[in-house]
Amino acid sequence: MESARYKLEVLEPTNIQKGKFRPSFVLLDGYLDLFDTIEALINVCILATQGEPYSPPHVKQPGEDIRKTLELVTQLLPFEEGEFLDEVNRLLNKDKS
């Protein structure tokens, strides 16, 4: 059992919410990299919904895959950071007045 603990490395517990996990392999260089990743995921979904009906044989449920991708994208959106940046912008503009 001890050796299995070291093989299960894809998910790691998050300290944000008890009982939740995050992928350990998602490493970003910063916010710009995060935004680029989100944009790429959205673009893939747009292309997938507009493309021809061809789907590779290993893709059993393309609609479900698109849904899961969009759910991941929404989780990656840094709304809290956006709120913080809006507040900083408001404070900076207040100082200019």
Description:
- This protein is mainly α and 97 residues long.
- The chain has a domain at 28-92.
- Helix content is 61%, strand content 6%.
- The protein is built from four helices and two strands; from the N terminus they run αββααα.
- It has helices at residues 2-7, 31-50, 62-76, 79-96; strands at 11-13, 21-23.
- The chain has a two-stranded antiparallel ribbon with strand order 1-2.
- Helix 2 packs antiparallel against helix 3.
- The longest helix has 20 residues, at 31-50.
- It is flat, with a radius of gyration of 19 Å.
- The relative contact order is 0.08.
Topology:
Blueprint: H1 2-7, E1 11-13, E2 21-23, H2 31-50, H3 62-76, H4 79-96
Antiparallel strand pairs: 1-2
Summarize the model shown.
This protein is mostly helical and 97 residues long. It has helices spanning 2-7, 31-50, 62-76, 79-96; strands spanning 11-13, 21-23.
Report how far the terminal alpha carbons are from each other: 64 Å
The averaged pLDDT comes out at: 77
The share of residues in helices is 55-70%
Structural class: mainly alpha
The secondary-structure element order is HEEHHH
**Main β-sheet, spatial strand arrangement:** 1-2
**Regions with pLDDT < 50 over 5+ consecutive residues?**
none
